[in-house]
Specification:
single chain, alpha/beta, 636 residues, four-stranded antiparallel beta sheet, six-stranded mixed beta sheet
């Protein structure tokens, strides 16, 4: 029986590895580097083409695979930027019509025309994206919604492009245009499968790189991504260009194989169909998006009734799939495999667990195994400098005002912090504490005043630049990447890729170096045993410690903590206090907290805000006896 349970665990671990190829956000540590999912697509697609390519379904296979190229790019673009742009059908048409025009009117080879149009589409997407990606959410969707309408109107009214009739080609992607139609169909099918496998490989390589980890954060929360040093405007633009280039490539390949471009390729219904394929397969899964395209195209040819009522069928299928799992078919598979994995792990543990494992279970449930967290930090970190040795000013907030529609949230706030030490920031609800932290962190610009860091004016610098200058922070609500491990959640703050391009990470990745640095941080905090745990399985205290570890991992000069003790028990607060006391000797910490006892215990200096005004600035002893503090905080 024990052997059976152990074998079940091994089988399930292999099934989990397969689920990584189906989902771009597995509940595990690594995403496939690209070889496995690309090989699966290549082998399976080639077999289908060789078996069915000479029949009528050969053209269906080509169309399915070309749409799958588009949806694979959409999974990276839309799934991780969280921005829907109605541009894929337009760039599909740009690639298809561009190849047709170059081949027909200039007698250019289809292969050369494809290369030229992909390069041209990249330039056009860069120019268009630099404008439209300034918008977000509904504004971006509306701004790009007009693109398919403009495109179909232009194509219909332009005889040069063939008008409603379409545009024929004289050449083909297959080396010999004089070959039989069956050979061209099979050869074309193999070509499009190779291109699809290449696109899947590129997407998987990007997502498994250090920039891929940035994209996971961007896909969860743009504000958190910026605070962790991610250049969010640049990444969103790169994702937009990538999706458009893959769409143009798909259109060019489609035209070169079919030797004809119908007007419908730029129709708004094509854009809608592509989005349905994406969300059915999985909006953040490359292979899921490919499967979504294949499923929809198969349904269209399943029967005449389905073909006539395809919109109804697609709508019902989309609704059912998303009700079961918002992450689509890929999410359903990943959830099933995760459940299998937990079952097998539990069964194997019951079969082989000994006394040592049983003793460790409570610590794992609580999240922190080491009972003496401060001692770990003392041994790992530099010794605290003696009082009075900190003369240089690190942070200076000068006369900061912040108004929202005439409502003053901060009024002439000025504070100065040295290079090391722990400083408390208190005040009643609505006093402006978090707003001041956001002004310092860069996510909220001040209406007036300056923010200086080591004498340099950073008032107008965005959050990602402040992070690179050494400003790190946590948030009131825990902001972690669900579906990723503790190690990856900490590693995202250790990335050295913030200035790199997505293209440069196709061939290489520096994620391993970031993970090594994150592992050292977790070891310093006594959390090494949690490295491979998925963050959503942790307690609130442990999640807050993970977020604190992420903030500490890049060795910041200024650490902003926004209510880290919220939701913790008294024992947990004392453990946090011990760690904060040790941190004061390593860096400058500004602590926003409602627990006045904790603030007085760990802070060498405390600021109190009320109604946006700084009403107290002094030491812990004065803080306890101040009538202003007692009136505002203790009395309330």
């Amino acid at each position: 029986m024990n052997a059976f349970l152990a074998a079940s665990a091994r089988i399930t671990s292999r099934a989990t590895a397969l689920s990584f190829a189906l989902s771009s956000s597995p509940a595990g540590r690594r995403v496939p580097r690209g070889g496995v999912p690309a090989a699966v697509v290549l082998v399976a697609g080639a077999l289908v083409v060789l078996v069915y390519g000479q029949q009528y379904t050969g053209s269906v296979i080509v169309l399915s695979a070309t749409y799958a190229i588009v949806t694979a790019g959409m999974a990276v673009q839309i799934g991780f930027s969280q921005q829907i742009a109605f541009s894929q059908s337009v760039f599909f048409g740009v690639g298809a019509y561009g190849v047709a025009m170059l081949n027909t009117h200039l007698n250019m080879s289809v292969l050369l025309a494809t290369v030229i149009m992909v390069m041209g589409a990249a330039l056009a997407a860069l120019l268009l994206g630099s404008v439209v990606t300034r918008a977000s959410g509904l504004a971006l969707a509306v701004a790009t919604l007009m693109l398919p309408l403009i495109a179909v109107g232009y194509v219909s009214g332009t005889g040069f492009l063939g008008g409603p009739v379409g545009a024929p080609l004289t050449g083909t992607l297959w080396p010999s245009s004089s070959a039989s139609s069956a050979v061209i169909t099979v050869g074309g099918g193999l070509i499009v499968i190779v291109v699809l496998a290449l696109v899947v490989f590129i997407c998987a390589r990007i997502l498994s790189s250090d920039i891929g980890l940035e994209l996971f954060v961007l896909g969860v929360d743009e504000r958190t991504a910026a605070a962790l040093g991610v250049r969010t405007p640049r990444r969103k633009l790169e994702l937009f260009v990538l999706g458009c280039v893959f769409a143009a490539l798909a259109g060019a390949v489609y035209a070169g194989i079919q030797q004809f471009v119908p007007e419908t390729v730029v129709d708004p219904t094509t854009e809608l169909a592509l989005l349905i394929m994406l969300f059915i397969g999985g909006r953040r899964s490359v292979i899921g998006a490919v499967i979504g395209a294949l499923v929809i195209q198969y349904l269209q040819g399943a029967s005449n009734w389905v073909s006539v009522n395809i919109l109804i069928v697609e709508g019902v299928l989309l609704t059912v799939v998303l009700l079961v799992d918002p992450e689509g078919l890929a999410g359903i598979v990943a959830t099933a495999v995760a459940w299998l994995r937990r079952w097998a792990a539990g069964a194997a543990e019951m079969a082989i667990a000994g006394p040592e494992e049983a003793d460790e279970a409570p610590a794992a449930a609580d999240g922190i195994a080491d009972p003496s967290l401060s001692s770990v930090l003392t041994e790992a970190g530099p010794a605290a400098e003696p009082a009075g040795a900190q003369t240089a000013t690190l942070l200076e907030v000068r006369g900061v005002f912040k108004e929202y529609g005439g409502l003053s949230v901060l009024h002439d706030v000025t504070i100065r912090l040295p290079e090391r030490g722990l400083f408390g920031l208190c005040g009643p609800n609505g006093a402006g504490k978090s707003t001041l932290l956001n002004v310092i962190g860069g996510s909220v610009p001040p209406s007036a005043g300056e923010v200086m860091l080591s004498g340099a004016d950073i008032t107008k610098r965005p959050p990602h630049e402040r992070f690179q200058l050494g400003v790190s922070r946590t948030f009131q609500a825990v902001h972690l990447i669900k579906g990723r491990t503790v190690l990856d959640n900490v590693a995202v703050a250790c990335l050295a890729s913030h200035t790199a391009s997505i293209v440069t990470r196709i061939g290489r990745s520096r994620l391993d170096a970031a993970r090594e640095q994150a592992a050292r941080t977790l070891a310093d905090l006594g959390m090494a045993h949690l490295a491979d745990r998925e963050v959503s399985s942790l307690t609130l205290e442990t999640q807050r410690m993970v977020e604190l570890a992420r903030a500490l991992a890049p060795s910041p000069r200024l650490l902003l903590l926004d209510e880290p003790a919220s939701g913790l028990s008294e024992e947990q607060r004392q453990r946090l206090a011990a760690m904060l006391t040790t941190l004061a000797g390593r860096t400058c910490v500004l602590l926003v907290e409602h627990d006045l006892a904790l603030v007085a215990q760990v802070s060498e200096r405390i600021f109190v805000l009320s109604g946006g005004h700084l009403v107290f600035d002094g030491g812990a002893a004065d803080f306890r006896s101040s009538p202003v503090v007692n009136s505002l905080l203790v009395g309330s």
